[in-house]
Amino acid sequence: MIQHILKASMERKCIVTIIYQKGDQITKRNIEVIDIRNDNVKAFCYLRNQPRIFKLQNILAASLYRKNNDIRNHSIKKSVNL
After folding, report:
1. Which of 22, 59, 72, 74 is buried most deeply by CB count within 10 Å?
2. How far from 69 is each of 23, 33, 82, CA to CA, in Å?
3. 80 and 24 in contact (C-beta within 8 Å)?
4. CB-based contacts of 26: which residues, under 8 Å, 6+ apart?
5. In 3D, which of 11, 15, 3, 8 has the Cα closest to residue 73?
6. Is 20 in contact with 66 (CB distance < 8 Å)?
């Protein structure tokens, strides 16, 4: 399902909201997918205001961006116990 939403973002040039885990930090980001290759997603990240590469395996959830959501991104300050 996540790959389907990311592919739709790339084809329709629309923004999606993802929950992304990097190490022990989880962030909520609004992105617009540019390309999907192998296990990497190249997208414009509105949190960093630049293109970024995301590992598909680290994307925990994805949904189409809703206007009532704030386009600014949120860092979820939460430790993840591994």
Report:
1. 59
2. 25, 18, 30
3. yes
4. 19, 20, 60, 76, 78, 80
5. 15
6. no
How far is 15 from 8, CA to CA, in rounded Å? 9
Q: What is the CATH number of domain 2-67?
A: 2.30.30.520
Q: What pLDDT, in 10s, does the model give residues 13-56?
A: 999 999 999 999 999 999 999 999 999 999 999 999 999 999 99
53 — phi, psi (to 5°)? -110, 125
Both tokens of 14, joined, read 């629309």
Sequence-distant (≥ 6) Cβ neighbours of residue 4 within 8 angstroms: none
